[in-house]
Structure formats: C-alpha cells, structure tokens
Design goal:
The protein is mainly α. It contains 14 helices and no strands. The protein has one domain: MFS general substrate transporter like domains (Growth Hormone, Chain: A, Up-down Bundle). About 80% of the residues lie in helices and about 0% in strands. The radius of gyration is 20 Å and the shape is globular.
C-alpha cells in the first residue's frame, strides 16, 4: 500500500499552531512601524541622522532584557500569559509614540516599546515546538512565516497608504493589532502548564552549540535588520517617495508566499538551505547597492526575499532542537538575543555607513552574507547533532 501524500504542506499540524498563526497574522497586519521608526523620529520629531541612530539603537538594546524576560516568564508563568503580557505592553508603547508631541516623550516611549517588544517571541516559538514533532518543526515555523508574509502584503499596502498622511497612524494601527492578537491568544490558546521549580534553571549558557548558533544568528540578524532599517533611509536619500518602503516590503511578502509554494525548500537539509539562502541574500544586497530607481529596488527585493525564505525558519528549527522540553522558552530566548543585539548594532552601522554612501552599507552586507554561505559546512559539523 502506498503512503498517502499530504494535501497541503501544513496539514496535520496542532490546532495550537494554527491559533498562534492566526493571532500573529492579526498582529502582523498592523506591525509595520519598525521600518518607519527612524523616518518618524527624523521627520516628525526633527531628530538628526546621528540622534535617530542612537535612539533606534536604544530601542534595540532594550529588546535584549525583553527577550530574556520573555523566556523566563514563558517557562515559569506560562506561554499564554506571557504572550498576552508582551503584546499589551507593546500596544501601550505604540500609542504613547503616536500621541507624543516632544522628542523626549517619543524617546521614552521607544525605550518602553523595546522593553516589551520581544516578550512574546520566546513563548510563541516555544509553543510551536511544544506541540510539534522535531521533523515537522520546519513546516510549522514555515507556516508561521508564510502567514506573516501574507499579512505583510496587507500591512505593506496599509503602510504605503497611511504614509501619505501622518506616519503616527502606523503606530495606532500596530497598537490595535497587538490588542486584537492578545485577546485571541487569551481566549483560544490552551491553558498554561506550570513548570516544576527543580526544572527551572538549566545551564543554558554552557551549551556551546547554542552559543555558536547565537553568534551565527546574530550576524545574520544584523544583516537583516540593516535591510529593515536601512532601506527607508536609503530611499529617502535617493529622493524616492516614502511610500516606496511599503511597496518594497509588500513585494518581499509576496515573494515569500509564492516561493514557499513553488520551491522545494522544505526538502533541503538546514545547512544546504542556508547556503542557498545566503547566496541569494548577497545577490540582492549587491543589487541594492547600485539601485537608484524604485524598479531596481524591487528587483533587489525579489533576490534578498528569496534568500530569507531559505534562512529564517532554519535558525528556529536548529535552536528549538537544542533545547530540553522544560527549558525551551529560555533556550529560544537566549538564541533570540541575536535579534536584540542586531537591533542595537544595525542602526549605528546603517547611519554611519550611509554617511559614506549606500554602496558601503549594502556591499559590506553582501560580503558578510557570502562569508556565511562559505562557512555553512563548518557549522554543519558542529551543529548537526541539534
């Protein structure tokens, strides 16, 4: 008897995965403020380019304790409670930014946003790993990525439309989506399970594979955050409309969705997929370096978005595979520090390299991506046991 084939690449996943996917999709539709944060600080509050870099770096630094707190709370307080807490905190901070009239108030609200921004990530990622077999985790994380990309299409169009008015409305939309997401999680996600105290303190930092994965992930996250933060500022310097960022991010989202359906990404092992991803990312960054029209930026977007398709879920799969069940929240929180560090570094590197020129920013990022592609066989020998 032949083995039945799956009707869809995401069939058979736990209902809890689908609940999280729907909730995060709702949140994603409004969560398009980060790429515009630097523009808002510059245009709406009169911050200089250097001040904007420092403020956004402050936001990034605040996400580091935010991520660690999310991991601790996920394993002790529970996944569902922690997600709701983090999303509510984000909503409060977003509304604060929207109503601010002075730069100092926007800075305080940005700091609060950073402190709440990453709380919900470790429990969300841990919940997916909790209810999914290791072999199915790339599919589950891929579903989350595809759903958020689909929401990103709507979010990009929303950002493009609202950017013609007052950019503060983006923060209002994000706050409302955070509250809607929190309400759905509180009502529909399974009840929290209390962890025993004797399981509360594994030696997370002694796992050398996790530390190595954290270093690699931090380099990738820095390149990724330079794209998110640097693209709007590059368009601004090229004299292109602010709405172009929304269209670029929408095209990126469409590329992720179509790519997941057409490309056999899930049939590659983690390290081969990441090698391909880094090569495509490097190509997109190289094209970005010499783009001067919106059309050229969109071509570059197709390339680096295909690279992201091969990269984003694989890091989460490797990190969740390293963790024991009772400490998965903290393992994913520690790995997630890569994004906090990247969000701290990227605003500084972006603003300083843009002073030299767009080519300096994007070509240096392309070189880093090529190096990471070359190093994947070396990472395989040290992380394959994950």
């Amino acid at each position: 008897m032949s083995t039945p084939t799956r009707i869809a690449p995401w069939s058979g996943l736990s209902p809890a995965v689908w609940i999280l996917v729907v909730a995060r999709t709702v949140n994603r539709i409004g969560a398009f403020t980060l790429p515009f944060l630097g523009v808002v600080l510059t245009v709406e509050f009169g911050a200089s380019l250097t001040e904007t870099g420092l403020i956004v770096a402050l936001f990034g630094a605040a996400t580091i304790p935010s991520r660690l707190l999310g991991g601790q709370l996920a394993d002790r307080l529970g996944r569902r409670r922690t997600i709701v807490l983090g999303l509510t905190g984000c909503a409060v901070a977003q509304l604060w930014i929207a109503v601010s009239t002075q730069l100092w108030s926007a800075v305080v609200a940005t700091l609060l946003l950073g402190l709440a921004f990453e709380i919900y990530e470790p429990p969300s990622q841990a919940t997916i790993a909790d209810v999914t077999e290791p072999v199915d985790r790339p599919r589950a994380y891929g579903l989350l990525g595809a759903a958020m990309a689909a929401a990103g299409v709507l979010a990009g169009l929303l950002a493009a439309a609202v950017s013609h008015w007052d950019l503060r409305w983006l923060f209002v939309a994000d706050a409302l989506s955070c509250l809607a997401c929190a309400a759905l999680v509180a009502k529909a996600l399974p009840a929290d399970i209390r962890r025993h105290r004797e399981q509360a303190a594994p030696a997370v930092w002694r796992d050398r594979r996790l530390v190595l994965l954290l270093v690699s992930g931090t380099v990738f996250a820095t390149v990724y955050m330079q794209l998110i933060i640097g693209l709007p500022l590059t368009l601004l310097e090229q004299g292109l409309p602010k709405s172009g960022t929304g269209f670029i991010l929408a095209v990126s989202a469409v590329t992720l969705i179509v790519g997941q359906r057409l490309l056999r990404v899930r049939h590659l092992d983690d390290f081969r997929a990441m090698t391909v991803g880094y090569i495509l990312l490097a190509a997109g960054l190289a094209v970005t370096a010499f783009s001067q029209s919106l059309t050229a930026f969109l071509i570059a977007t197709l390339l680096w978005s295909l690279g992201d398709l091969f990269l984003l879920t694989r890091y989460l799969t490797l990190a969740s595979g390293l963790a024991p069940d009772h400490a998965r929240g903290r393992y994913l929180a520690v790995f997630g520090l890569s994004w906090g560090v990247a969000t701290t570094i990227a605003p500084l590197t972006v603003t300083q390299l843009l002073k030299i020129g767009p080519e300096a920013l994007w070509l240096s990022s392309a070189v880093v991506s090529v190096v990471l592609a070359i190093l994947q066989p070396w990472f395989r020998t040290r992380l394959a046991r994950a």
